Amino acid sequence: MEKDDNKIVRFSISLEQSLFDYIENDVLKTGYASRSEFIRDLIRQKMVEKKWEKETECLGVLTILYDHHHNELSDKMVEIQHGHLLNVSCTLHMHVTHHDCLEVIVIKGSPAEIEKIAAQISGLKGVKHAQLAKTAII
Q1: Same domain for 122 and 79?
Q2: How far apart are the C-alpha atoms of 60 and 114, rounded to whole Å?
Q3: What SS3 class is residue 126?
């Protein structure tokens, strides 16, 4: 008989009242459809973390805010990305203010490769804020 990974399995859990109240009062009000969906997301997050620990093929989304008037910053960012053509899948560039730009860079590869590219770009002079979101196929 073939295993159905999408079959819904019901089980019960026990929580302290404060944790239950948090789910009921805070989580459901922010847009989660149900307690079950919230718990599923927590489990998926742990699965992604495990994939990053195992050094398997993963994905990262680097979001950076930077001053595009900063001397040669754009050229340096492009140079880093071109040096990693197999890892950098795509970028999105947005003009935020006269001085500031937002860039989103999708990076694939091993966690070490992704973190190295993210650190190289994040550490450039003129980058005001950078954040790497980690994900994986689970």
Answers
A1: yes
A2: 6
A3: coil
